[in-house]
Amino acid sequence: MSDSAPVLTIDGPGGAGKGTISRLVAARLGWHLLDSGALYRLTALAAVKHEVPLDDEPALARIAASLDVVFVAEGEATTVLLEGRDATTAIRTEQVGDAASRVAALPAVREALLQRQRDFRQTPGLVADGRDMGTVVFTDAPLKIFLTASASERARRRHLQLREAGVDASLSSLLKEIQARDARDMQRSVAPLKPAIDAITLDTTRLTIPEVVDRLTELLTERGLASAT
Asked: Which of 126, 143, 117 lies closest to 31 in space, CA to CA?
């Protein structure tokens, strides 16, 4: 790990566009990418696979500490292998997302994954996507962003994604799930979802993806963290 490598943290609630924005910024700059949410989703998926209850904190922490995971970068896309099998699609389901939110509220699980996340910090730089990247994992990051959007807009985006994937889903149910997950993430006792004190909050409700990517690369350039592209 290189503690001197610059880090851009992108935190925020689910559906704000963190994943897409993070991938595109990392690809544009040639930086490494940390999808911290994937680690929690993989922990949840592994727990379900091995029939470990989602309230068994010690067992879940052991799973998190020994996750057999490989991230295979393919251009702007990433294939995720869990125990040698492709889990890229499985970890993006609403069921796994809900389970991951529950698992992420457990202090022992968060502690087990902390160093693993910090090890992603490598030159030339890292884009870290999550919910506590700026507040807990990379508190010294020179640029911290908190992406947000209205709950209704985030539900609309998720509904569109599912429809494009051929999955039938209720927009009203998605909205309720997002609101419940937001409440759980913001109210948990360890690393609750909130902007870092020195974070820049960016509401993406009425912004396009290219507009957000351009804004973030501009901020990095202005701070001397990346070259103009």
From this structure: 126
Please give the C-alpha separations between residue 88 and each of 27, 46, 81, 98, 151, in angstroms, as whole numbers.
19, 13, 7, 16, 25
Evaluate whether 209 touches 21 at the Cβ level (below 8 Å).
yes
- Please report, as a single letter, which amino acid is at residue 220: L
- β 200-203/143-148 pair status: parallel
Does position 3 have pLDDT exceeding 70, yes or no? no
- The span from the CA of 118 to the CA of 152, in Å, is 33
pTM: 0.85
pLDDT, position 228:
63
Q: What is the mean pLDDT of the chain?
A: 91
Residue 130 dihedral angles phi and psi, to the nearest 5°: 180, -150
Neighbours of 18 (CB within 10 A): 27
Cis peptide before 192 (omega within 30 of 0): no
